[in-house]
Specification:
Layout (H helix, E strand, L loop, with lengths): L4 H12 L14 E2 L9 E9 L3 E2 L2 E2 L2 H19 L3 E9 L2 E8 L4
Parallel strand pairs: 1-5
Antiparallel strand pairs: 2-6, 3-4, 5-6
């Protein structure tokens, strides 16, 4: 059976835009904040998130990668008792760190 290269490319491009990470029910209330919005919050830790930045030979969109990294970090933040995360730097090679905060009064 011969597979058409253009079909493979089309499927890979469609898949490269997909997001595979879901936010858990517990993490639904974890917010992504800019660093200047943490006044009154207590920093309780740091988490690292990693996702794939390529599907086969195709790069995934930066927006989808960022969404997945934030979803992963929000999920992890709940395990530390956090309700907010702040990105540390920018994503690189599908990896990013996030500071975790407890901002219950916000």
């Amino acid at each position: 059976m011969r597979i058409n290269f253009s079909i493979i490319c089309a499927v890979a491009l469609c898949v490269s835009g997909c997001t595979w990470v879901s936010v858990t029910e517990e993490a639904q209330n974890v917010r992504v904040l800019p660093a200047n919005a943490t006044a009154g919050c207590q920093k309780i830790g740091n988490v690292s998130a990693k996702t794939t930045d390529h599907v086969t030979i195709f790069a995934r969109s930066d927006r989808k990668i960022q969404q997945e990294l934030e979803s992963l970090a929000r999920n992890e933040a709940t395990e530390l008792g956090g309700d907010a995360i702040v990105p540390v730097g920018t994503a690189k090679d599908g990896r990013q760190s996030f500071d975790v905060y407890r901002c219950e009064s916000h």
